């Protein structure tokens, strides 16, 4: 489990394209400290498994479905990525419960800068709209954020200077894709309420 509190802004150092997958090498001194084969690291919100690691770099294999359902397929050498290790048992839940299972992708629509923060508007796939509510939680490229406004096909988030400086959202421009993971609690509630209605109808 992750919390959406980014530990490090890493970088893609190599990409090997395979027939039905890809292998990425990524630099991240913080997240590779003490890393072992088989450990999990979230890359732009996608939970990946460490295959190899050396010094401050690690490699991870990404299957075709993940490349198609997330924005990882657009990564190239030099791309900056958000990195987070799983939270340890008993650790602080600084953001919200993040699984590292991307539900879909959105696109940065526009940015509105102010003196102390920035409002970013992101497109929202129709199938995810019911899970995103104002003042609720959403994960964007692995970052735990609070929704400011939730529309039918978009939502906005307000970014503080720290988020702008230390994550990919400080670099994203209009038209850039982002990974989205909605609040898992909302999906469980929907399933349970639906099951309850089915039982009542019997």
From TrEMBL:
Name recorded for this polypeptide: Riboflavin synthase
Catalytic class of the enzyme: transferase
Keywords, comma-separated and alphabetical: Repeat, Riboflavin biosynthesis, Transferase
Native species: Streptomyces chilikensis
Coiled coil: none
InterPro entries in alphabetical order: ATP_synth_asu-like_sf, Lumazine-bd, Lumazine-bd_dom, Riboflavin_synthase-like_b-brl
EC number in record: 2.5.1.9
Domain Lumazine-binding span(s) in chain numbering: 1-96, 97-193
Catalysed reactions, semicolon-separated: 2 6,7-dimethyl-8-(1-D-ribityl)lumazine + H(+) = 5-amino-6-(D-ribitylamino)uracil + riboflavin
One protein family per Pfam: Lum_binding
Pathway(s) of this molecule: Cofactor biosynthesis; riboflavin biosynthesis; riboflavin from 2-hydroxy-3-oxobutyl phosphate and 5-amino-6-(D-ribitylamino)uracil: step 2/2
Any one GO MF annotation of this record: riboflavin synthase activity
PROSITE patterns, A to Z: LUMAZINE_BIND
Record function comment: Catalyzes the dismutation of two molecules of 6,7-dimethyl-8-ribityllumazine, resulting in the formation of riboflavin and 5-amino-6-(D-ribitylamino)uracil.
Gene3D superfamilies: 2.40.30.20
Sequence ranges of the Lumazine-binding repeats: 1-96, 97-193
